[in-house]
Each structure stands twice: as structure tokens, then as C-alpha cells.
Amino acid sequence: MLDRILERLTRSDRQFTVYGRDGGTDIEEQFAAHSVTVDCRQLPPDGPDPFVVVEEAGEFVGVLPVTELEWLLTPPVVRPTSPAAVSPGYRVLFEVLDETVFTALNRRQLDAVSKEIEDRARRVGSGRLRASFQQLSTFADQVEWYWTLGEAGLDIHVYGAPDWEPPAIPGVTYHGYGDGSVERYWVLTFDGGSDPSQACGLAARADADSFDGFWTDDAELVEEIEHALRAEAGVD
After folding, report:
1. Are residues 225 and 159 in the same domain?
2. CB atoms < 10 A from the CB of 54, how many?
3. Cα separation of 69 and 66, whole Å?
4. What pLDDT shows up at residue 81?
5. Per-10-residue mean pLDDT for the chain, 236 residues long?
6. Angle, vertex CA 160, rays to CA 116 and CA 102, nearest 5
7. In this protein, which residues make up the domain named DICT (predicted)?
8. Which of 56, 93, 176, 217 is found 20 to 30 A from 76 (Cα to Cα)?
9. What is the DSSP annotation of 40-91?
């Protein structure tokens, strides 16, 4: 299940075709880390104002003015409170923005991303945090930090191959698995607790000495990753 999610999210079936003029936009750079293909084409001098054609799975979805797209991309990016209320073109745009794809991250870089997610959970102070550590022995260096997270009032579930006996930590439940099905994944999810808009997560697959995967702020995708982790581990 985790493999299917990773393949779906890292394979781009969305395309933005930007029709503009020389030096008019840096949209291609802004979407470099997202699951979308960006193609740029030139408009004639007497043509219409620059615009973006949005396609998904080879099908036309909508057209967005470049000026409005650039405004939407200016931090802080504000997501619609009701995705169903926006047009299909904007729906695809916000889905793309909610998914950041990465390749060849080393363990230190991925640990930094994980800390951001864990610290968000600590600040919210409620909710469920799930973390896969490949082997439970990898968790040894995180014990002190997870004491802090447990004291914040989180419901924490730690997964890993049972090659080490971790200490009891208030708020932390351990789940060992023995078939190796999850050992090549690095997974972390936070359901947002009392504020679902704070949901976030990442899923990565080990490739030699690095990891490929994505992180997301989309609550539904976070729930899907969480479900896949539980199913793969065969626990909980």
C-alpha cells in the first residue's frame, strides 16, 4: 500500500502549460519540488494576457490567469476552506501545492523534515502521531525527544522491527513487526489533533544511501498514509 501511494504521488500525471512572454514568470521554478510537469510556451506580442492551462491525466481541467496564480503563490499560501467550492483548475493547483516531492534526501535531511512535523504536533498539543523507524534500535537516539512529545499530550505510536527493547514512555505505544515489510520506509504522520488543518506527514522509501518520497499538508492524504502504515505493519 505504501508503494502504491509513493508511486502515485511521485509520478506526475498533472501538467501546467504556461503561456507567457520572455522574462514574465518563474512558475516553473516554483513548482520544481511538486508533482507536476511545467511546460512554457511563448505568446505573440499582440496575444492575450499570460495564462496557464491545467491538465490532469491528459485531460483539460481549466485555465488560470498567470497574475492570479502568482498572487496565490505569494506566501502565506491560503488554501480554500471548502475544496468542493473551487473550480477544477484551482482544485488541482492546491492539490499540487499540498504535495512536496523529493529525491535523494539523506538521513540527516529527512530527520530535519521529521522534526518539523513532530514539533508541529508538540505545539498543537493533541492528536495522534505515528512514526516508523525501520528498526526500533534507530529510535534509541530519539527517546529524550519523544519523552517531550509524550508530555505534550499526544497519542504516539512508534513502529519498527523489534531488534531493541525501548523504554516505557508515557503516551507512547510501540508496535514491532517481524516480516520486514516496512523496514525500508520512513513514515511519519500527524492527524492535526484539535485542528485538522495542522495535519501533515511524510512517506519515503530507502534507495541505497538516500530516500525518495514526499511530504504533505493534505489531511486526507495524511489519513491514507496512516492507514497504509498500519496495514503494512499488520499491527494496531
Report:
1. yes
2. 24
3. 5
4. 59
5. 87 85 74 79 90 90 87 66 66 76 83 94 97 93 97 97 95 86 91 95 90 90 95 79
6. 40
7. 101-203
8. 56
9. EEEPPTTSPPPEEEEEETTEEEEEEEHHHHHHHTSSSPPPPS-GGGS-HHHH
> Are residues 93 and 104 both part of a single domain?
no
pLDDT at res. 85 = 57
Domain boundary among 41, 70, 97: 97
- Per the CB < 8 A criterion, the answer to whether 224 and 5 are in contact is yes
Q: Which residues share a beta bridge with 189?
A: 130, 201
CA nearest to 221, candidates 194, 190, 193: 190
CA gap 28, 41 in Å, rounded: 12
Question: What is the C-alpha end-to-end distance of the chain, expressed in Å?
Answer: 16
Backbone torsions φ then ψ of 142, nearest 5 degrees = -105, 0
Q: Whole-model pTM above 0.85?
A: no
Burial of 1 (0-12, 13-18, 19+ CB in 10 A): middle
Count the Cβ atoms, other than its own, within 10 Å of residue 210. 15
